[in-house]
Amino acid sequence: MTSQAVAAERTEARLGRYREAEGALWEHYGLSPTERFVDIAEPRARLRIVEVGSGDPALFIPGTPGTGPYWGGLIRELRGVRAMLLDRPGWGLSSAIDYSKHRYPGVTAQVLKGVLDATGLERVNLVGHSIGNVWALRLAATHPERVGAVALIGGGPVVPEIEAPRFIKLLASPIGAIIVRMPQSAAQVRAILRQSGHAATFDAGRIPEAFIQWRVAFHRDTASMRHERDMVRTLIGRGGWRPGLTLDDAELASIRSPVLWTFGTADPVGSADVWRRAVDKLPHGELRVLEGAGHLPWLDDPASVGPALNRFLVG
After folding, report:
1. Buried b / exposed e along 255-269 (16+ C-beta atoms within 10 A)
2. What are the extents of the domains in the chain?
3. Which residues contact 234 (CB under 8 A, 6 or more apart)?
């Protein structure tokens, strides 16, 4: 067997392990998603979309904490929503793009427009999380005719006063090359969840073990973190975020879509005061603050986050 064939066999085995962990988490949530891949032309990429439910389409754009089934606890609370869960380029099972060859604000909107074109959607609601919030707002600002309602969840690098999190800075540094190649343990995943504001939920036993094992497999068996580091290195400079990533007041004011922002007070990214100021710049913005919820607030309080999102998206 050639070295190339051996490498291909190992890759297939890793992806098989990841799919097994992903399937176990979907099963925990009682959901049976379908999967498809779409090709976009510019930048050229093959992107995976996992779909759950039927009704009004909503495109879900993930952050660094995960993709696909990490939305599961939220998705199962929705009714009348066709949830289309995107793996961002290089993330999950989507192919990577070279972010160094593009201006980040432009390429985020370009990728999402390509997804809408490839799926035949003229107009869609958007749900973003973490850095996915930036993607959602950039599409809404650049192609308002393609965007309905926009739901943002958790803090993210949306406005200039948000400093790059310590982990993101570390990821962009030379030591980040070692971090993304070291297998992540279940203990490390649990520690990250605690640092992300979910200690109380974890201690109460409300974060399933299947979630922990899926996140271990996500880091170990996909190239997601290596690709995320490549992206992050184009966003971080000596002084923090490079110009163009965050939105200024005029850009926020230009967004005409209704926007619902859900933020938990235990989320380490920003604060309720920061996001109130940001939402005040949006012509049709609303902020929901959840006391004690972390960076993924649907892990802490799905019974609150899900129905509120449902009402916003469907009415």
Report:
1. bebbbbbbbbebbeb
2. 3-314
3. 99, 100, 104, 242
68: its two tokens:
């696909």
Instruction: Give domain 3-314's CATH superfamily.
Output: Alpha/Beta hydrolase fold, catalytic domain (3.40.50.1820)
Q: In what order do the strands lie in the sheet with 34-40?
A: 34-40, 45-52, 81-86, 56-61, 124-129, 147-153, 259-264, 285-290
Q: What is the largest CA-CA distance in the chain?
A: 62
Residues 45 and 68: their CA atoms lie apart, in Å, by: 18
Taking residue 108's Cβ as centre, other Cβ atoms within 10 Å add up to 25
User: What Å distances lie between residue 217 and 27, 118, 214, CA to CA?
Assistant: 16, 29, 5
pLDDT tens over the chain, length 315 residues: 676 665 667 888 899 999 999 999 999 999 999 999 999 999 999 999 999 999 999 999 999 999 999 999 999 999 999 999 999 999 999 999 999 999 999 999 999 999 999 999 999 999 999 999 999 999 999 999 999 999 999 999 999 999 998 889 999 999 999 999 988 999 999 999 999 999 999 999 999 999 999 999 999 999 999 999 999 999 998 888 998 899 999 999 999 999 999 999 999 999 999 999 999 999 999 999 999 999 999 999 999 999 999 999 997
Q: How are beta strands 236-237 and 240-241 bridged, if at all?
A: antiparallel
| DSSP conformation letters of 72-117 | HHHHTT-SSEEEEEE--TTSTTSPP--GGGS-HHHHHHHHHHHHHH
Distance CA 234, CA 237 (A): 8
Angstrom distance (rounded) from CA 195 to CA 299? 14
